[in-house]
Input
Amino acid sequence: MKKMLEVNALSAGYYHELVLEDISLQLPQGSVLALIGPNGSGKTTLIRAISGVLPLRAGSVKVAGQDIYSLSPQQRARIIAVVPQARSIPPAFSAEEVVALGRTPHLNWLGKVNGKDMLIIEEALEKMDLLALRSRAVSELSGGEQQRLFLARALAQESPLLLLDEPTTHLDLQYQVSLMQRIHQLAHPTKEELVKGMQPKTVVVAIHDLNLVSRFADQVGLLVGGKLAALGKPEEVLNAGLLSGAYNLPLEVLKEHGYTLVIPAHTPARNNS
Output
């Protein structure tokens, strides 16, 4: 698989605050990178820097061999789709109208969708199981349906790189697992989907649930204090010593049915007598 994302010696921050320092990583096409780490470690900042909306202090970001900071916003939107934490969509918009926004980087100067655009919009809705809700207002959708909707909008962009900032937040366990399954499937299409012309997506996802990470990520990047403390396969990074130090909490890592399970370590109760 070809390299899709190349981050080299990236440093970034806000105003006088340096949040990320000397971050380097590479991600091939058709893989999922999970960004983990405690609050304030720089996960959201890294996603913003990779997306091109946050100017770099140093380093570079290339997507499909192109330096993203040399591209116009429209050109970047054709190769990078972002689902941020904060999402602002008028509640009266229908599901179909929200997904249609994903076609914006591809529209002509008149800004009107054509027949090809509508096919892509329908495919994105179908992939996220939202076709039956296409006319439903955003305000009438559940939290899980809204999360799938914003992912469908990102799919409609037809961008090879997806950046997702904590997409499972505020979802119950069922929807968390379902959404991560869909994200994994986007990076790993079936043979039938490949025959139909579907290209594997490359996904960077910031996420808190370490057990979802162990099940659905191909690579894991552990951020601590704005630096990349570890990068590798889930079984390499989800290490009790690494994680306990990063989260300042004693943790145990167990192997269950082929998956890695991260739980708080058992500590004897204090005797206050």
Notes: The chain has a mean pLDDT of 90. The radius of gyration is 19 Å. The first strand starts at residue 3 and ends at 14. Residues 173-187 form the longest helix (15 residues).
